[in-house]
Write a structure and sequence with these properties.
The chain crosses the membrane at residues 28-46, 82-103, 115-145, 165-191, 203-220, 226-244. By secondary structure, the chain is mainly α. It is 79% helix and 0% strand.
């Protein structure tokens, strides 16, 4: 039997898969390295970063008040954890760029032209949600909490409990601000129409308040501070969906008119 030098069919079938897996590993490694580099650069400022995150509460406490650490390792672990989260937060554009570079070769030109603006918008909206939580929600929420307690109770918040609380709100508002993107994609892909989504407004309002109740502390103020922006962002998604559908309808009618 002569050796023709041809590659076996099974090897030909596995080669593209192996190449994709190698590229995926490379992209993941780059993302992890980027997070580690940013973390190492920020670690020297970990206490300052924690102080910045704690300022909305500390500014409302009586002069001389301070946070406490109820666990031995909390003074180290809380700033460490926050710095790691901030590193991931800062590196999101690069991580998403790596994901985009991995999937982009398999997309059509029309899909690429649409996906890139949506990707950039989703990152921007996530950052806006976190900024809204810090600059708008935190001052209102902490003012409510610190002023409604009994006069003889001194607020001394544990640093680890506070960190868990604010991180939960950061991510809740960051994800909530993605609603316009989700609504827009539902309309664009034809999974739902503008008319059907508009008709579901009462259920959307109820769902926003249910989500606000589940993702925020058990009080009406924080629930409303999340639910109301979520509904307004839903309307923004409907608005952009109408504009895109109207534009695509005009483009389809233009050749007929010509």
């Amino acid at each position: 039997m002569s050796d023709t030098g041809d590659t076996p069919p099974s090897s030909q079938g596995h080669a593209p898969l192996i190449e994709h897996l190698v590229e995926l590993r490379s992209r993941l490694m780059r993302a992890v390295i980027a997070i580690l580099v940013i973390f190492l650069a920020l670690y020297a400022f970990s206490n300052d970063i924690y102080q910045f995150v704690a300022d909305p509460l500390m500014e409302l406490l009586p002069e001389g008040s301070q946070m406490i650490a109820t666990e031995v390792a909390s003074p180290f672990l809380a700033p460490f954890k926050l710095t790691l989260v901030v590193a991931v937060f800062v590196s999101i554009p690069f991580v998403l760029h790596q994901a985009w570079a991995f999937v982009a070769p398999g997309l059509y030109d029309k899909e690429k032209a649409l996906a890139l603006p949506l990707l950039a918008s989703s990152v921007l909206l996530f950052y806006l949600g976190a900024a809204f939580a810090y600059y708008v929600v935190f001052p209102l929420l902490f003012a409510f909490f610190t002023q409604t307690g009994p006069e003889n109770v001194q607020v001394m918040t544990d640093i680890n409990q506070y960190l868990n609380f604010v991180l939960k709100l950061f991510f809740a508002f960051g994800i909530a601000f993605e609603i316009p993107i989700a609504t827009f994609l539902l309309i664009l892909t034809g999974a739902a129409s503008v008319k059907s989504l508009s008709a579901k407004r009462p259920y959307v309002i109820l769902g926003c308040f249910v989500i606000g109740m589940l993702m925020t502390p058990p009080d009406v103020v924080s629930q409303s501070l999340l639910a109301v922006p979520m509904y307004l962002l839903y309307e923004v998604g409907l608005l952009f969906g109408r504009l895109v559908k109207r534009r695509s309808s005009d483009d389809e009618e233009a050749p007929d008119e010509a």
